[in-house]
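Data availability (excerpt). The following record was deposited with the supplementary files.
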Amino acid sequence: MKIKELKEMTNEELATLRRDLKHETINLRVQQQSGQLENPARIKAVRRTIARIETILSARSGSEAVATETAATAS
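Predicted structure:
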């Protein structure tokens, strides 16, 4: 998934997608261990997408925290 598509999603949608991708990662690893994995590059793609999601979520929570602190000190 492209970073632009991920940035357009809400935090709830990103959290749901991250959960689904983590489940997919588990399934891919099971397939890899049993020798049934057809596309090994999919593991890397899923891991990178999860990392992108976590980066976006942490950046959003960080910017919200800064905005809250700024508003609190201005009062």
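Summary of structural features: The chain has one domain: 3-74.
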